[in-house]
Structures
1.
Amino acid sequence: MSKKFPKLSLILGGANSGKSAFAEQLVCSSALTKNYIATAQAFDDEMQKKIEKHQKDRGGDWNTIEAPIDIFPLPKEGVTLIDCLTLWLSNHILDNKEIDTKKFIKACKHAGHIVCVSNETGLGVVPDNTLARRFRTAQGQLNQDIAAQSDLVVLVTAGIPMVLKGQLPSKLS
């Protein structure tokens, strides 16, 4: 029996864990149009180089949407990779805006297939300042809310994906 591509997926992991590479592999395993919503902003040379590396690694056959804050409307066709929710949340917090998780999940349900990349921030120490604790709490809640609605949740550690919920599509299992 073939395992179909999940409607909503959440790919979690720490910094440089391989979560984005795995998410791209997941999207590429479908025969659908590939969309990429980029939430990163290059405020320095290091981040600009990281963005350029991600672009080079992906190749040119993705429809890319630069959306650091306003990611709506989500594409209705194909598979959309949102990389990443952590930067999207950070951009909102730094702009003194709230994320409407219910609106986001509703938009996902009315879009094509969605693959979200997000950092797992709950494995570290308790931050020593208010802004960092606010961010950590908001990130944890955002991840929990999206995971609860996702068909597939994968934690990537050291480049190794571990399925927490659902099943990988046939081409990846």
2.
Amino acid sequence: MKIEDNFLDQDEFKEIQGSFLGKEIPWHYSDTVVYGKDDSGKIKGVIKDGNFQFVHMFYTQHAPISPYLEKLNPILEKIRPTALYRIKANLITSTIEPVKHDFHVDIGNYDNPERETIYPEKLKIFTTSIFYLNTNDGFTELEDGTIINSVENRFVTFPANIKHRGTSCTDKNIRMVINFNYIK
């Protein structure tokens, strides 16, 4: 895992942050944060208090789908991926008490919950990175217990086969991140 603070220069960061915090980027409601299986093994959205989010999908399954993708060029120029798989922004609203979402990997069942996650050996070729757009008391937790606090302009990178989860925040109106899934 690699944590890079002040990932972008301040002007580039403020421009990206302003686009997301303003009215420029459209957000879409999602009634789940993580898909899962119920006790019988049936795929379902994991629904519980505070387990919803707003998303903006930029790129999925190797294809751009947002006219706002160019806003992320400063980040893409720094990470220089060989191939992109998915780029998705998440906006989670505050909750009175922190809500921890379920552990997951980003690649596999997000776009089609009826399908199983990509074979674990294939996941090893992918990288997951998270770019934090605002500072708040929410965090990302890796399955081994590592906590990465939400600090604006922080960029965290780890292998895509590492399970992780996010949380809501309680001290700001929103917690906002952009997830990148790619081959280095």
3.
Amino acid sequence: MRTSDADILIVPGLGNSGPDHWQTRWEQKLSTARRVDQADWHRPDHASWTGAVRDAVNAAQKPVILVAHSLGALAVGHAARDFGAGKVAGAYLVAPPSEAWLRAHPLELGGFQTHPREPLPFPALLVASRNDPHADYEATEDLAKAWGAALLDAGEAGHINMDSGHGPWPEGLMSFAGFLNRLT
């Protein structure tokens, strides 16, 4: 699938993705990409976050490719059952936090403490780091299995964000292109 044939929805996590974050760079580079905005990026409310993702997917005119990071990946997982049939062509999910990290996080995370365990109804690639401070690799591997997602080992890449040195993240863009090539 070519990017021009899809509506690419960028779904950031807690705090949004800043100007140098790879998601923001991809959004600027990919002509059909747009961000799914949240009412409050610092106080995630399960109903409003998943509702924003659901509404953006269901309003899309072309097949949707979701590009989600961290808590945004979990918002996609929670909202997946509410997407219109056949709306999503695929999801590229990066560094979702583990249930253990979510339970220990000092902020109220409004219903995101548990992960949905149903298989996603569309192809997905879950990218995980071996030293992500927000999730151990085994927990992410288990989530990928539950979701029926392919798992891409990103090595020791931290949380795959600006703090771990992933501004442009060219390796991610290459794996995203490979993922798109496998979609029909």
4.
Amino acid sequence: MLLLQLFYTFFKIGLFGFGGGYAMLSMIQGEVVTRYGWLTAQEFTDIIAISQMTPGPIGINAATYVGYAATGSIWGAVVATLAVVLPSFILMWLISRFLLKYRKHPTLEAIFSGLRPAVVGLLASAALGLMNKENFACPQTDGYSFAVSCLLFVVAFVGTRRFKINPIAMIIACGIAGLICY
């Protein structure tokens, strides 16, 4: 029963996770932490960190880890991974069949215009969802960790946006800074 629930949950996430893996994170968190309680918020934060470090799309990596953690077996990982990928596969197959024929149709253009703000909203939700006490500490209980986290966030944001620093170099630099500060 858990495998069917896992399949349904990740199929739904894969179907409505417009905007890529980072946009899926808030949906995954809402389902696996809040709704079903398969993971704690700390476990989910750890899974996101591992998903970011391993090769491949973050949404698929997160689904794989959540599937394994929720069931304790490789079958949970396989089911969650297939479920999150299957909607994209089906949609891409359908789109490739019809998009070239109807790409200038007003209805299709209106659909894509409506999806753009939804993608921005999902990405913003993922960013705000990751700004929790596990990642940024709490200013009332641990002011130092909170200040360091906020400073690293601002430096990384400004460095990548304003000064066009390579994101990989920025991740490494922030990791070293975090190691030194903590």
